[in-house]
Amino acid sequence: MPLTLESVRQDFPLIVGKPDLVYLDSTASSQKPQAVIEALERFYRESYANVHRGAYSLSLAATDAYEQARHTLARFIGAQPEEVIFVRNTTEALNLVAYAWGLHNLREGDEILLSEMEHHANLVPWHLVAQRTGARIKAIPLTPEGRLELCALDELLTERVKVVSLVHMSNVLGTVNPVAEVARRAKAAGALVVVDGAQSAPHMPIDVKALGADFFAFSGHKMCGPTGAGVLWGRAEVLQELPPFLGGGEMILEVHVDRSSYARPPQRFEAGTPPIAEAIALGAAAEYLMGVGMEQIWQHDRALVEYCLKRLDEELPEVRTFGPRGKDRGGVVAFSLGSLHAHDVACALDQYGIAVRAGHHCAQPLHRKLGLASTARASFYLYTTFEEVDRFIEGLKQVREFFKDWL
Ligand code: PMP
């Protein structure tokens, strides 16, 4: 069943309140539905207390709500609740894996395999760990269309590769990587597999078991949830063996002055007071998205991006777009307009009420590969309409006209 756009849009107060705004920056962060705003407010108004430590009813109710959110997020990705660790965001999740797993398992001469399309969140933590362990970083190259060069994989996957960490969907190219295939080949070569799901989890159905990875990271704020809560999923057997990342309250079994022992997962990885209200509201966001239907959201994104690329190709030859054409492409369109600076394009579009992002989108190695310092980027989500894509195209035509002497 296709998505009922008008009723979806009514769920988002900011969108209803700003009828002239064309919000095309959901890849950076999504807007929030009423159900999520209400969940956050209701918790603070009616049930707020710290979790996991109170004997009184209010704290027990808060703990129940927090653990219920864990169950919901587990259902959202086809996992077990004890495999769901609440973190702040994808960046923290990937740092957790790099530090907790990487520092203990990587040695000099080992290799970490990434790709040329990674977000800095899946590069810098590995750089930090490589510097400390002496491990070396390699990257899967890209094809000219912006897909992974899978032919290179067999040669790259030597026995020295101990971890493969890969983005599921690129925040610049929109490419959806064949993670299940890479995971299968990486596991056969004996490597741990980590997936950056920051862009895939909000936009398509996810079944972590089917992906075959060991870790899967995503952020709540990109999937209709609040800022401050995200998820690291870890395969139960791997989490069991994983030492803690941060130490403090809540993650321990027993503490002496000079030593401590640690709780089982997921508590072992949730030191200190967690983002309680944010996690509960993230649970509401996951319920909301599942209610709309993740497959419907994915099909809607796909239809929008196909329509947008077709119109750009046919009507704006001065616009260069990046990323593959096909079913393995999500609702992200990074582009350049002639030799104009991406920030000028974004500022000019803003004059027409069209919000797009400009910059390197935390993917400097990829932009270096594209031969550009920055791109502008339009991105779509469940509340984006075809009329908004039309306004974006018309806006770009105005910008082209305005800057025609500089193109
Ligand atoms: N990976 C990808 C592919 C992303 O798009 C982003 C956010 N732009 C991140 C990681 C980092 O997410 P966060 O800032 O929420 O930690």
TrEMBL record:
It comes from the Bacteria. The keyword Aminoacyl-tRNA synthetase does not apply. Keywords: Pyridoxal phosphate, Transferase. GO terms for biological process: cysteine metabolic process. It comes from Calidithermus roseus. InterPro entries: Aminotrans_V_dom (IPR000192), Cys_dSase_SufS (IPR010970), Cysteine_dSase (IPR016454), PyrdxlP-dep_Trfase (IPR015424), PyrdxlP-dep_Trfase_major (IPR015421), PyrdxlP-dep_Trfase_small (IPR015422). This is cysteine desulfurase. Belongs to the class-V pyridoxal-phosphate-dependent aminotransferase family. Csd subfamily. Residues 22-392 form the Aminotransferase class V domain. It holds the Pfam family Aminotran_5. It is an enzyme of class 2 (transferase). Gene3D superfamilies: Aspartate Aminotransferase, domain 1, Type I PLP-dependent aspartate aminotransferase-like (Major domain). Its EC number is 2.8.1.7. It catalyses: (sulfur carrier)-H + L-cysteine = (sulfur carrier)-SH + L-alanine. Its cofactor is pyridoxal 5'-phosphate. GO terms for molecular function: cysteine desulfurase activity; pyridoxal phosphate binding.
